[in-house]
Amino acid sequence: MNTPLPDHAGHRARLRQRLIEQGGDALLDHELVEYLLALAIPRRDTKPLAKALLAEFGGVGGLFSADPEALLRVPGMGETSVAAIKIVQATALRLLRVHASAQPVLASWQALIDYLHADMAHRTNERVRVLHLNTRNMLIRDEAMSEGSIDEAALYVREVIRRAIDLGSAAIILVHNHPTQPISITLDHAPNR
């Protein structure tokens, strides 16, 4: 005797089909997260969890940049689900970094802004980063120099300059975020040797 299928049977298959045939724009934000979570949690309806995560973190950007500890505090999230969220963030940042470093930074300013925004705009703590450039203004290194609190991050100029000399940086870009404001970027040249 056949048991009737639940109402949600085939839902994941329909999401998968829409994604493959029509691309990511065919899915709503909660459907993207739902399908991602379904890969990490195969035997559970992940739509409620996806909606809860988006509500908790204020959308896709906040969700994918959330700290693993904060994700684990959401009921229904485990290490496998957190890893799925973080692998998406890591992949997106890597794609953006490739675009930002493929040509001189000043020629691809918007690509650099997009990369930095994806990484820092949704953080709940302040962070200072230093982007090291060569003589052709190509990105040679991107380093986080300081993680701070909600309203401050320390930066030691001596350490920034020492690192720039060690790397042979021709120029540096200092990047600092404020959790409640957009990213600000300043350009400063490393000292001449």
Write the layout of secondary structure elements.
Blueprint: H1 11-22, H2 29-40, H3 47-57, H4 60-64, H5 68-72, H6 79-101, H7 109-120, E1 127-133, E2 139-147, H8 157-167, E3 171-178, E4 181-188
Antiparallel strand pairs: 1-2, 1-3, 3-4
Helix pairs in contact: 2-3, 2-6, 6-7
Report what the structure shows.
The protein is of the alpha+beta class and 193 residues long. It has eight helices and four strands, in the order αααααααββαββ. The chain has a four-stranded antiparallel beta sheet with strand order 2-1-3-4, sandwiched between helices. Helix 2 crosses helix 6 and helix 6 (79-101) runs antiparallel to helix 7. The longest helix has 23 residues, at 79-101. The chain is elongated and about 70 Å long. It starts with 10 loop residues before the first helix and ends in a 5-residue tail after the last strand. The model is unreliable at 185-193 (pLDDT under 50).
